[in-house]
Design a protein that fits this description.
The structure is a homotetramer.
Chain A (H helix, E strand, L loop, with lengths): L3 E2 L9 H6 L11 H16 L7 E6 L3 H11 L5 E6 L2 H12 L3 E6 L8 H11 L4 E5 L1 E2 L4 E2 L2 H10 L3 E5 L18 E5 L10 E6 L1 H8 L18 H4 L8 H15 L4 H18 L14 E5 L6 H12 L1 E2 L11 E5 L7 H17 L8 H7 L2
Helix pairs in contact in A: 2-9, 3-4, 10-13, 12-13
């Protein structure tokens, strides 16, 4: 039994993507071939946000660096920032805005569904103005997708710069950066791209670039300073030595997604099947609506301990699934169906293993998960 | 002709080290096997600084993240910091100390040799006290090695926390962290380790850990906050998702160095041969003494343009060599002989190519570089 | 959709086994390390035939070289050879025995089941004596397993050297060379070992070695002469330059099998599930009994053309399945469940694809193949 | 110290060529993509013999299979065969011609130089007619190259089918199959192609194909029967399961050679440098003229034992060099400079190691080998 990692990120990389890490490396500071590779990778990366106008940047660091970079680069002392909070990640963004000197105002909303745009508009009208707003596309800990297609145009109309954490949706959900007037979108390598952790993809609208260029105070960070990246191609100079291994791996991963035009549809269909299987078998999905298409968060059944389930699956079946964090720790279990893991055969195997576990625990399900999965179209 | 990268970092990785990047990846947040791998890698990493007591940390980011992390984590507003400057990198450290609120006092010294410890002591006595001092082991742009074996004990006696940038010396020079009372030492992956860029190795003395734990103000950064790393193994939790690909590659790279106990001696001997070849052939080494053993910086001969030389070697011979930066741009050329590049056959090839270039330019050398190299023991 | 090769050999190799082909190669004639690797691989290979006494040889050539080597090495002009024929491969063995000068006597038996040992004994008593007998363990074109556990002891009692073609059973079925008194057993790399084609594994009993050593005429071949291999380790000399890449790959493949002690049981269970699925859904298995555990041969349904089915699965689903050969061409389709392909998730995927194909052809099955597969324990 | 294999084959493969072995494998019997790959590889293979008209075949077996196949396929009982013998390999060909029923007539000539074509013509006129002749392009054990550009046209004029063993010259020497009227040329994978052993490349002229098609008796072998290969592409059927791993690796290896048009010139120049170095330093080359360009065979110096030298280089320097065989065992040492080993830096390293060995043995050379190598243009 090969290890099967079915957590909502990091996901397992394909052999091709892992193999791309082992290219013969060069001097990425001096070798113009690397600048071409980097530029080509950025262009491909923009295809997944359907953007012509935005500037793509790939930084060397885990995706959280993207969140911090947004705050470090956009916020000046005392800026009023709207923190849109309907989940743990949305809420947590506020710690970064605080750290970089913002006055953070939280729009707190139901954690069991996506943001209601009307309520949000009302909140903005009553509590604005705001320089920028932070929000999360896919609330990974709870499996919610926020309607950024409605939120970002609203923010734009209100003159608010939108910072979108799309770490666990990029490459799995449809995103239209230009059309939806997103100002900054942040993605990582280890989720739907199924590349090793360590790369942060950032997309900036022209408006966002302008704001960066015109900020008055200096940025209080070097590593998280997006301004250092604005002229990389023009100056043929990176802020620090880049990794051709990682960029090459991202490039191959993007090819794999772009070559199969149906990635959005596939994620959507598989997610629906997974949800239906659990619902039909008597489980409760955490979300009430606005379900994520890249992972599913399910309430732990009565009498089942998550750690026990996790260890059984790991030790007996060599399968890793996710739990959740913070106040959801022990209350939810999560299955990732993003990137390379979004495959029928992987879901089949994990459901079969869960069936065995629940049988082992004398928990009778309304339906067998893996048989139900086979039956659903 | 395979591309031969003979710059002073990034260096070319061995097939084994590149291959180690392509391991089947797991969930590094949840998989205890990864914590074991990380811990094992940290233990091996400590061998190259001959340390028992220090704490090793491997962050996901280019080595400059280590410098910023030092400043972000140790400096509190208004701290007096001694910036030891006998080279571009030493001087540049001061920008980070400023950024994080220090009062930076520069000890400026001759750029053509290592720091004179007596002069430094006098300076400290006259200008102290200092909370911490920043210094560079190997001044990569100019090929100087500073005597950290003398400087750090002095700093320690003076009650100053020592922050050593050993990015281009770690793995090539002998370092004794505990004996020399170094408080923080920073290394990167892409120099003597010959791993792709993207990993920062940090070593902290017990005293340094104590200082971190007792700082009064909160650290104004998340990604550069060393405090988040102090209890990684105890809590079995990283500050962000780590990369098993990278850690595995570092692990293999460390094995390759540790397995050949003579790495210090080999770097030293090869460096001396390279210097002697250039001196015997009529070139001028930039340094007057305290030469680096991991690279050699040579003055450009009269009438030769660095870019022309660089492009000739790249286009005709598929060899990359380094120039220099800042005020040394165009005035020095540099050859790396660190990590995987520190091999007789590589130096032989680059010298032969340089002979051809100089002949092509009608520059008569006193001796042929590659024949001289063959002759020297 | 990755290509999924579900034919009864060649099978797809694991990443580990393919990766083992790319080791840094040495001079296999001179490097004693290679002799150790070869010897170690032979020892492991013997574990799959549960033999202590036999001599293992790994030749550089496709498995059919093993059949020819048996005939070239054992047969002397005019030897009477019993060719046990209940399938295309069994029958074909006779062409090799003829080529090397034997008088070939065929025991022809029902193609839809394994050999009846009583009938065979009667035949031998009436038509013997024979110097040697050729037989096939798994008749790959039709999916039959012969009871070599009964046949070989019988041959031994009758003083007949037994030559067993175990090419598509080795590594999937239980084999006990010593206990069953098998004299020569032939295996290949590309079936249950799931290594690329090009290696032939041969196992010789002590009695067989003695017969080789005492043959009177010279062997009329070099490449197919087993005598050249008897003293490889003693003389530290191969008959020709061997491939360390291939031996290393076989070594890793054997490890993968040996590490999971249950390979016989797994093949058996999965084979039964596959048969039951097809039977329950209204298909006819070709065999009446003595089914192969490494592949299943099923009769083509009325009105379905094999080539059409093959191409649909290849073009629409990127799955390869097998047809059959000779008189069974177009009449049977075959699914391999051997070696790396013997996995639930692979079978699930191929059955789902077949369901789609039959639906596409308006052929109504009694039960859906993949749902039935999910249901069967 | 990485192992450096400087023997005259097998040579070390490049990372690319080894990597090409680890492709995801398919069913080579059924997958048309593989037939395309095979055909493409054959076309590239023909470029190295500068042939338009010939038929290329790649068999699964070590190169000696090519020699046996020539004899098995062309010779009918009692055929008169001319065995051209000026070396161990040329002489040994006669054992195969005998085995397959030929009347073998030896043309024995000076072992220290290439064949004298005038003497050969005289011999043929006096001893002919012959159906075919066997000869060796590069006598690997002694480092002689035979003038096949003169011999084969002569044989053609005399109506004799020419069978050329070009195993250690193919890919290193210029060969013009059509122009020189060669009928069959045999190459292997592990010499100048620098691919693992296990592939035999065979090139057949139209005349040779005709002879095969018209032979009267059946071929007494299956595995060595070239007739089975004549219609592979037409019938889309191989005689046995082929290896896509190996064919892919050969394909990549051919690309590497073809991409650098100067491979003949490079081999020639490096070979001359190696010879001059040894001659200038006081050694004796075995050959008097007609030196091989792919290896050099040098007489052992007085008082030096080959095994001692071999083991010193292996154990102290991790370098493998070759000795010789048969009557030259212990009397010659050989250095390969073929394929991937034909690189300045490799020769430099092996010569430096030899210098150290001879110094260790107190043998004073007239000149230092590696310094002399550096000096020679």
């Amino acid at each position: 039994m090969e290890r099967l990692v079915m957590t909502p990120g990091p996901t397992q990389s394909s052999e091709e993507v892992r193999g791309a890490l082992s290219i013969k490396n060069t001097n990425t500071d001096l070798d113009k071939d690397f600048f071409k590779l980097y530029n080509d990778t950025c262009k491909k990366a923009k295809k997944l946000v359907n953007s012509k106008d935005s500037k793509a940047i790939i930084m060397l660091g885990e995706a959280i660096l993207g969140l911090e970079s947004a705050c470090a680069s956009f916020i000046e002392e005392g800026d009023r920032v709207l923190c849109i909070d309907n989940g743990i990640f949305g809420r947590g963004f506020g710690e970064f805005t605080d750290m970089y000197g913002a006055e953070t105002i939280y729009f707190r909303s139901d954690y069991k569904r996506g943001i209601d745009v009307d309520e949000l508009e009302k909140f903005i009208d009553e509590n604005g103005p705001f320089k920028l707003a932070t929000l999360v596309h896919c609330e990974t800990p709870t499996g919610i997708t926020n309607p950024i297609e409605d939120i970002c145009p609203l923010l734009n109309r209100k003159g608010i710069i939108s910072i979108v954490d799309a770490v666990s949706s990029y490459g799995g959900e449809f995103i239209s950066m230009d059309e939806w007037a997103i100002d900054m979108l942040i993605a990582g390598t280890q989720k739907c791209l199924s590349v090793t952790a360590g790369g942060t993809l950032v997309f900036l609208s022209n408006r966002a670039v302008e704001v960066l260029e015109n900020r008055k105070s200096s940025v209080r960070s070097f590593y998280a300073n997006l301004k250092n990246w604005l002229l990389v191609m023009e100056n043929q100079k990176f802020p620090y030595t880049h990794s051709d291994a990682l960029i090459n791996s991202i490039n191959v991963a993007l090819d794999r997604i772009i070559d199969r035009a149906d990635y959005v549809q596939r994620h959507k269909e598989l997610a629906k099947k997974v949800r239906d299987v659990f619902i039909n078998s008597g489980f409760n999905i955490y979300a009430n609506k606005d379900y994520s298409n890249t992972l599913t968060a399910i309430k732990m059944p009565e009498g089942i301990d998550f750690d026990h389930m996790f260890n059984y699956l790991k030790d007996e079946k060599n399968i890793l699934i996710g739990g959740s964090i913070a106040e959801f720790n022990g209350k939810l279990f999560r299955i990732g169906h993003m990137g390379e893991n979004a495959k029928d055969e992987h879901i089949y195997i994990v459901l079969k293993a869960l069936d065995e576990y629940f049988k082992h625990m004398n928990l009778t399900l309304e339906k067998s998960l893996h048989i139900e999965f086979a039956k659903i179209k």
